[in-house]
Records
---
Amino acid sequence: MLPIPIHKTFTYSVTDEEANYLQKGMRVAVSFGKTKLFTGLVFEIHQNPPTLYEAKEIHQILDDKPLVNEIQLKLWQWIANYYMCALGDVYRASLPSAFLLESETIIYKNEAFNNEELLEDDEFLIFEALQHQSQLTIHQVVDILGKKKVMPIVNGLIQKSAIYIKEQIYEQYKPKLVKYVRLHAAYTSDDALNSLLEELSRAKKQRQAVLTFFQLATSKKPIKAKDLETKANVSSAVLKSLVDKNIFEFYEIQTDRINFKGDTNSLKTLNEFQQKALTEIKTSFQQKDVTLLHGITSSGKTEVYTKLIQEVLDSGKQVLFLLPEIALTTQIITRLQFYFGNQISVFHSKYSMNERVEVWNNVLENKTKAQIILGARSSIFLPFSDLGLIVVDEEHETSYKQFEPSPRYNARDAAIVLAKMHQSKILLGSATPSLESNFNAQQKKYGFVALNRRFGNVQLPKIELIDVKEKQRKKEMKGHFSDRLLKLITEALEEKEQVILFQNRRGYSPIVECKTCGVAPQCPNCDVSLTFHKFKHELRCHYCNYQRAMPNSCAACGSNTLDTKGFGTEQIELELKELFPDYKIGRMDLDTTRGKFGYQKIIGAFEAREIDVLVGTQMLSKGLDFDNVSLVGILNADTMLNFPDFRAHERAYQMMVQVSGRAGRSKKQGNVAIQTYNPYHQILQQVSITDYQAMYKEQLQERWQYKYPPYYRLIKITLKHRDYNKVDTAINWLFKALYASFGEHVLGPTAPAIARIRNQYIKNLVIKIPPKQSLANTKNQVSKIKNTFEAVKDFRPIRFIIDVDAY
Ligand code: ADP
Ligand code: ZN
Ligand code: ZN
């Protein structure tokens, strides 16, 4: 198997000796084409010489035991067949890139390496060449050494950390721990306090520190050691001596959050509802391999998962815990690490090459520290040998689907297949299950368990809808805020509580338009208008990252009448800073989280209550658990509802319920305020009483009526090319060919909302597959038509993309 976008495998010849040594799943260095070197994977060892070409010899065997097991190979084949993609693409997507050296791979010297005496002769030659040249390709290594068999040498250099290969290296995140001060428990009574002040009457500085502490303590906020030092005008030594006397104690909020509800790292005791859910899940698993847990936000699903995980670990099997996006879920990682400490490994494409290789090897060898793997979608590709449980948290999340590049798979669905291959159980969890999963549960394909009570019996937040049109008419809007929302924000802040505001658009305003001639500046590479970013005073394309300074005058008519329309997170942040100058406003969107640890920094600051109001995009809706947020505001619900996609309503419901779920999680019932022009929209009505069942029934009805999943399946075909006419001719040809086979079930051709991105014109066709039509036959037919298409010389340069279950 070669890591190239080709369906086929290729036959190479080996000697008897090599044949005896080789096993399926080992890597071999081979050449392909005239000069290219690749890392191939042994897929089959057989005696049938190829008929169409002469089998080449392999260069070398790269492993002494298989790197990939039989179950993985089976999963790869399933993915290639189901998602109609090349086996080579799946192979490439599955292995950390350090395992896949090829001629074009670029290597760099590790500047920190100084153990040159460890290097073998050939290794040293390469290392030395890298002193003169900052980078080399494997191809150049072949030239320098004058031999083809170079992969083990390069592998050796990587293992000794003398070189690394091109990719971004991310550091592990270490949260900054802020030191806080509190009074020792012995001094909480008034009597104790008075005698304390007496006691300190001669230690003036210490007394000053204690008095200042009480002043600050009236604000109910945690008190930072640094702030206390400044305000009391004392040195850190003074605080230290008060801690030594057991009057103060230092603590750190990050760890405190976790220690909060139990001091040891033993699992929490489930409440009766969680316990009942756990029992039902176990009963369900006796009959069904897949079970859906529908647990409302903050019902304590994570604690239920941990009990199941513990039992599977005790039985000696492995656990895979899938998360939609690692960056956003540091909180869950911390929680699970707290319970399972050294048995847990995190796997993520943003981890450095070495970390990924290490996790791969630990899973392969079934090491203790890889008993639980916590990871985003690509962790389904790890070499598990004995999975006992897969948990798919927030199973409704779109980020489980990979859209680009191929393989375009859905990790939740592939995980169900993976579980079957291991005879493992799989639990899908969500507060807002996807329509498909809930449908499967209703059809009794999956088991189903509900958890309808918030932990601690806190009620779900009170949700109110605010009619913006009416507020405008009555002149009760200040900027983008209704008087009602402002009142709720003010009340929360006065109670020292925190606020989350959701606006699903970043930048300052998405449209810039000339008031004189109506022209809006466009991206030169895409068919989309540019978004204004005020902080940098520039216009940016959110599709290709094109950017330029905001012009002073209109390029079309020359007037100085450029105006902005609509609003994004940046504008909301600025308005808030004016409205609430005494509070700290933070913003979380793609622009503020670009840095290495962008998310974690902002989430950490919000947890530590250094931010009072956090404005953000949908990043805020994903599994975050803050205990002091009492209000969530949604500034404009309408953009979500008007999205041109058959899932728009389902998504809008999920997003709003999930963001709302961040309010009032621990102490008292929270508030949610949703601003909209259309308060009678059925989805908003359903959100306002968290009526999942009503949303589900109504959406399902529409899916049936308009022939969409879960009843019909969808295959989407996309063509892309720089030349509009080429794409247009090709898509019409394709439509006719598909129409001949599938008739009215072919939709299109259509141009997407953004019809050109990065100078590529885009056209789509969608094939709908009715419930009774064979999926396999349909795919065969589509493949045949694709082959015919690719045989047309004119069409060859056009990109042909197939996306199965394109949603
Ligand atoms: P969900 O994932 O369902 O939204 P979480 O698992 O995040 O809910 O739980 C919400 C909060 O309640 C968390 O802070 C969690 O630590 C706490 N919690 C849940 N179950 C328990 C329990 N059995 N004992 C103590 N605290 C719990
Ligand atoms: Zn103009
Ligand atoms: Zn662009």
---
Amino acid sequence: MTTDTPPTPEPPNAALAGPVVLVAGARPNFMKVGPLQAELDRRQIHNVLVHTGQHYDPAMSDVFFEELGIRRPDHHLEVGSGSHAAQTARIMEAFEPVVIAEQPSWVVVPGDVNSTLAASLVAAKLGVRVAHLEAGLRSRDWAMPEEVNRVVTDRVSDLLLAPSFDAVDNLAAEGYPATAVALVGNIMADTLLANLERARARPILVENALTPGGYGLITLHRPSNVDDPDILAALLSVLGEIAERLPLIWPVHPRVNSALARIDVPAGITRIEPVSYLDSIALQADARVVLTDSGGVQEETTVLGVPCVTLRTTTERPITISHGTNQLVGTDPHEIRLAVHRALSGEIAGTRPDLWDGETARRCVDAMLTYTAAGTAHH
Ligand code: UD1
């Protein structure tokens, strides 16, 4: 009994005066700019990719470009690591002449990393429209550098591309006008759904003697969990208990290496090098449970329907708890054990949130064109 649905009206196709500049800098940015670059290309909208160089190891950067077919960056700022102030300042200094030379119609900044903040400030001060992809998320934990980045980036952005209704609610509560906000869904779902089959074909499970449903996955990189060796050792001790029942595999973020030099990793936890995008999805998809402090992994496990235990006290992605498969437990050993028990006993089920459907890049470009045509300004 399906009836013909009327075609979605095409947004006004305002000619964009200059290119769309996409900014990526750190690992969680790359899978967000990929679908946007592809959609802009599909519509023959001139776009330029800037890599800030915040992440630079091949395993933290190049492999994502190769696997996801992202074009080589048009500009590479090569800023590297540093303190927050130094890294942010270096990105700003290097990005400013790029914006002046490119004269973009839009600068699109994804996520909440230092590259996001730095690029949005530069564009806003040069009077160039900024679109924040993944706007409106709030952990309300001001000690997280990402929370500062989110709030400031939203404030200097013209168009707020929100992944979920809770993000839209946050922006409304902060006084952003509805004309500045577009609910577009989760762009990571675009990448995940398009690549799931390829990920499942990867040999990463076999290479690590893992069987589907027979292991757990750890990812850890939040400064609050990994910078202090004592805190990390306490966390690993409870994970070690879990590993006595369920083998755990842990791709180790480079940030963790200095703390790890001073502590022992319990038996049952297998450390491996950072994994590529496809391998990360492959490991998540077949895990019995994922233990993480990442934001993106909370979302990917929700899309995959895999139980996730988040080793943090706050999350900026509450929809992964209310709708998805996530449990927020902090670092209390008892809470971690309970959450893992619930996950292993099959108590955790979830649904995929609205608009996490693989069509987010299309909605982002629609929103940018509509905004351009309307000539809106909310500042
Ligand atoms: C950054 C983001 C964080 C994101 C994470 C994903 C900020 C404030 N933080 O954290 O939100 O979740 O990326 O990975 O932007 N390092 C390397 N090789 C690299 C990159 C980093 O060895 O290619 C090491 C360096 O020692 C560096 C440290 O990791 O000092 C931290 O890197 P940085 O980019 O400052 O922050 P992340 O912890 O990666």
---
Amino acid sequence: MPKEKISISVIKRLPRYRRYLGELLKQNIAKISSKELAEMMKLTASQIRQDLNCFGGFGQQGYGYNVKALYDEISKILGLDKKYKTILIGAGNLGRALTLHFDFEDAGFELIGIFDANYKEIGDINGIKVYNMEELEKFCEINHPTVAILCIPKCNAKEVADLLIDCGIKGFWNFSQKEFALDNSDIAVENVHLSDSMMTLSYRVNEIMSKNSETDE
Ligand code: NAI
């Protein structure tokens, strides 16, 4: 593990490195040079060397990177080897879609329960039991989940987050549109807005369209 703290901008790039390295592993590729990895990822070789040197490099002059070792180390740095126990709150459209289609295990999490305030939703989704919110505290006492995914309306998000913190939750994957940054530095929050990515796309399409209309003139 690295001795020095890695900057958040490097951390944000690690999942992408891991994804590409995972693809190489599937193709039984054991080593790769920074130049080859750079070409695949549309980055510069020096950016890759700079990023990967943050935690020991793993590269050898004239050999390149050991794909498996680098993949494992990145997984470890991201904490994916811990397989944090995770609960999902809100078994509506989004909660169901995530439970059915998101690969929690590959992302390094273990989904152990789903909670909803609405009795009509109770049952199970993809083999994961849906509990009523009234059972949350008891469930957490017994199972000690670390991470919670919030798929509930904005108006209830803060209240539910506070309850979850009391139940020992240390990290939130927050889809609720209620953006909260907690004062407590012992709790991590990732606010997710799919629309941010869509708006970035809009900006880029806009640029292409304006360029095309300039060349048409
Ligand atoms: P939905 O109405 O289908 O589901 C919400 C579920 O939350 C319902 O089953 C409801 O019973 C439950 N719920 C409400 N209050 C609760 C509470 N206090 N405790 C436990 N469960 C509670 O809504 P949908 O479509 O699944 O969306 C959920 C939220 O996610 C909405 O706030 C929506 O705006 C947001 N969203 C965010 C996206 C993003 O990119 N961040 C993308 C899509 C939706």
